[in-house]
Amino acid sequence: MWLTLFATSFMSFMQLLDASIVNVAIPSLTKDLHVPMNRAEWIVSVYFILICMLLLFWGRMADQIGYIKIFQMGTIFFTIGSLVCALSPTLPILLIGRIVQGFGASMSMATNIGIVAMIFPMNLRGRAYGINSIIAQLGNISGPGLGGLILGFLSWHWIFIINIPIGIIVYIYGRFMFPKEEREVSIIKYDWTGLTAYALAIGTFFVGIFMGQDIGFGNIAVLGTFGVSLIMWIVFIYVEKHVASPLIDLKIFRNPRLTLSLISALLVFSVGYYANVIMPFYLTDFRSLSTTMTGLIMMAIPFANVIAAPIAGIFTDEFNATNVSLCNLFVYAIPLLFLTQISNDSNLIFFTVMLTLLGIGNGGFQNNPMIMGYAPKEYQGVAGSLAALFRNIGMGIGVSLATTSLYYGMSLKANRTVTDYPKNNPGWFLNGLHFAYLTAFIILVIAIILVFIIRRIDKSAKVE
Prior knowledge:
Elements: H1 2-32, H2 37-40, H3 42-65, H4 67-86, H5 91-119, H6 122-151, H7 158-161, H8 163-177, H9 192-215, H10 220-242, H11 256-286, H12 291-298, H13 300-319, H14 321-339, H15 348-364, H16 367-374, H17 380-414, H18 426-463
Helix pairs in contact: 1-3, 1-5, 1-6, 1-8, 1-11, 3-4, 3-5, 3-9, 3-17, 4-5, 4-8, 6-12, 6-13, 9-10, 9-17, 11-12, 11-16, 11-17, 11-18, 13-14, 13-15, 14-15, 14-18, 16-17, 17-18
Protein name: MFS transporter
GO molecular function: transmembrane transporter activity
Domain Major facilitator superfamily (MFS) profile: 4-459
């Protein structure tokens, strides 16, 4: 039972690791594949886009045909995608591999929690969820650090090669050890119209951002792409309100505390991804550190996160998740302000301390207890899926916002459009970094305001 938990959790670890580990390899990829920085960032973003588009689909499909079947298929696709990425000689082939990886990761992520619920009795389920969450999130936050260490000794291909034996082992283990599911479904019922509108809304939104980075956000094609995304969101909401079996029961958003908790989680995860995207360039290219040293410095974030998360969990039991999250968001704000003023000779020890505070702030933000705590009993399953969805959308938006604000800040300094690392003008990059972290700070302030509102609603509810 516990070995099965670690098998499924470790697959989630690898898939979330792959979502973040590529960031530290972007400087190497831009050189080896001879592509500008904004094109190389597609390698990160396309993975998130596929997960965001398909996560809800596979979750609902697994309810009908079986969690384990979908999980095992996802393991196969993720492993094949990793092989394609590892052997990729060009950017287009690498992107195809990342699409296959994202397709498989969406299947496994959507079914992971369902498998835990299937194999554990009720009295052990909470502990199993906690272990699963910690292992999975470790993959997300340790990616840049681990990637830096790998790249210090090996080529970027190895960040994908390491997935292959793990994927094979997990699949073989699952074939013999996972419990059998007896589900006979003659007709698969699904909200295909809602799924299509939702997938197109997500896809066109991110495509619009990437196009805007290349040709400018005022371009008619970019504006038209965003227009299509807006129309698809309107269609999606209309369909969900009128279809018999909706993809998402929109009634769940009538709970203001739950809705604000989901939005604040999305914002905080967006801010968290700024470091993954920007810091490898600051340390490797701007400060001329080795990838090994970059990895070691960036490991401060996951180490602090791992320590802060369980401690914050203990405080949550005593003071509730909203109060603990609010305190940690203020801690989070300190390093963000520091990074808006960082220079080319900032002390690396103090810099590492600031990254440690980033990890503490991120780990101490109790998003899952907030979301699940405010969700009514009848919506616990939906709330869990939405928590995963908003987390992944947040990370995807974080990649897009970090790169867009970085390029915009560099372009302001250069008085022309800049979408690559300016080797001959490092001051442009520093200006872009300052601007990017100013936007991150503003996003965090919005998250703090939302949590304040949740806290006020809590107090009003207690008075009543």
